[in-house]
Amino acid sequence: MTILNADLTVKRGQATMVERIALRVAAGQSVTLIGETGSGKSLFAQAILGTLPPGLHAQGTLHIEGAPVALDDPKALASFWGHAISVLPQEPWRALDPLMRAKQQVAEVHRLVAGNTDAAAAASEDLAALGLGQAAERYPFELSGGMAQRLAIAAARAGGGRIVVADEPTKGLDLARRDEVAQRLKRVTDDGGALLTITHDLALAAALGGEILVLRKGQLIERGPAEQVLKTPADPYTAELIAAEPRHWQKTPSARRGTPVLSAQGVTVERGGRQLFESLDLVLHAGEVVGLCGPSGVGKSSLGDTLLGITAPATGQVTRGNGHARMRFQKLWQDPPAAFAPHLALGQGLDDLMALQGIPRDRLPPLLERLRLEKGLLARKPDAVSGGELQRLSMARALLLEPVFLFADEPTSRLDPLTQRDVIQMLTSLARDRGIAVLLVSHDPKLIDSVTDRQIAL
Ligand SMILES: Nc1ncnc2c1ncn2[C@@H]1O[C@H](COP(=O)(O)OP(=O)(O)OP(=O)(O)O)[C@@H](O)[C@H]1O
Ligand SMILES: [Mg+2]
């Protein structure tokens, strides 16, 4: 039986944002959307969920559990959330209540949506299964990016909806966690549910199997069984996308190390009274790209905050050298929305920054071009661009400040493999040409291996 049947187009006024895509997902079936960042994957999912941004609308037909639903009635669509459809949005923070502890978030859904009388026990079980048992009493802001991602999954699944829509459920997760999430998503189809996943992670797409749809520039360019599309792609773009995965990258030669830019001696970092790691020593030199690895929640982002002077170390000392202004020690946020004010047009935020810091305005256009960002995006607010576009805009923001040190926290987690490869190449060549010291966090060991000179493991 088909439990999700969508045949729709997404429009903005007369303009077509996503050309017609017809999708039928039967009980026990998995459909995965892959493709270019900004190609319309999230918009397609949002049309089904009734969460399209203002000004955009969907045309076509939608059937949920066999019943027709009006695409232009967000209230009717919202009534399916939790009960019939579980939703995992692209930004986990948008799915979580900042004022509620982790376990309570999941228990509420068990109680209110699924009507479970022992919601607390069910919530504890879910958290344990996702490796979040220790974090049950923490608030979202006390969680790492990967942990928040897993919490959002637990909360979404607690409602028990048969249809699961997951937008990049594994971004920012290490390989072990990614496999766990893949197993959890597979359980949806094993239990007779329907799964619609959006991902840039081709290994996840392969693990989920089912049908794959490839999108580019608002168009469906290829579809077919997962194995066929991934092993023998018919469209040249799909082939390029697959070839751009980090495991196919060539090792880039090491840079010549410049003078030390930043050093840490005996640094111990604590968060919420817990010690994350102790007595870390490191020196970073101009022009070198160093990898930072370690499992989700180990304290990679916290180390970054300590190196940047945003938080103080519990013991030890960080020296940011050579008389450079504080502004030139920058980070690329793991969570791109955090880099921008939500109610301000993106371009306005960048203009204000350039005015405040006395940065010549002609520095911006070439950066946008190298990051493959269109100028038109600047007129929009952060919630009106795609996840990958916002990630690259936050990179442009940091690079405008001509950093001498960059803490790059999963800087390409929201990009398709092809765009990821270009952006990482740009970042490493900038590091070499301009002598930026880059500390690069990624959960992809192949990526880290091929572009870094050395690695620090936490
Ligand atoms: N509110 C909006 N107004 C105008 N354009 C928008 C709006 N929201 C998104 N877009 C544009 O629609 C296009 C498709 O966006 P969408 O979020 O679906 O991309 P995506 O395929 O999910 O990309 P990513 O992989 O980067 O998340 C993008 O170019 C984006 O800038
Ligand atoms: Mg998206």
Question: What this model shows, in words?
Answer:
This protein is an alpha/beta fold. The chain is built from 16 helices and 18 strands. The chain has 2 domains: 2-245, 3-Layer(aba) Sandwich (Rossmann fold); 260-457, P-loop containing nucleotide triphosphate hydrolases (Rossmann fold, 3-Layer(aba) Sandwich), CATH 3.40.50. It is 34% helix and 26% strand. The strands form 4 sheets. A 6-stranded mixed sheet has the order 6-7-8-3-9-10, sandwiched between helices. Strands 15-16-17-13-18 form a 5-stranded parallel sheet, with helices on both faces. A hairpin with a 2-residue loop joins strand 9 (211-216) and strand 10 (219-225). It binds adenosine-5'-triphosphate and magnesium ion. Magnesium ion (MG) is lined by residues 41-42, 90, 167, 386-387.
Q: Which distinct ligands sit in these coordinates?
A: adenosine-5'-triphosphate, magnesium ion
Q: Treating each run of at least 4 consecutive H or I residues as one helix, how many helices?
A: 16
Q: For this structure, what is the CATH class of the largest domain?
A: Alpha Beta
Strand line-up of the largest beta sheet: 6-7-8-3-9-10
| CATH superfamily grouping of the largest domain | P-loop containing nucleotide triphosphate hydrolases
Assigned CATH architecture of the largest domain: 3-Layer(aba) Sandwich
Question: How far is the first residue's CA from the last residue's CA?
Answer: 48 Å
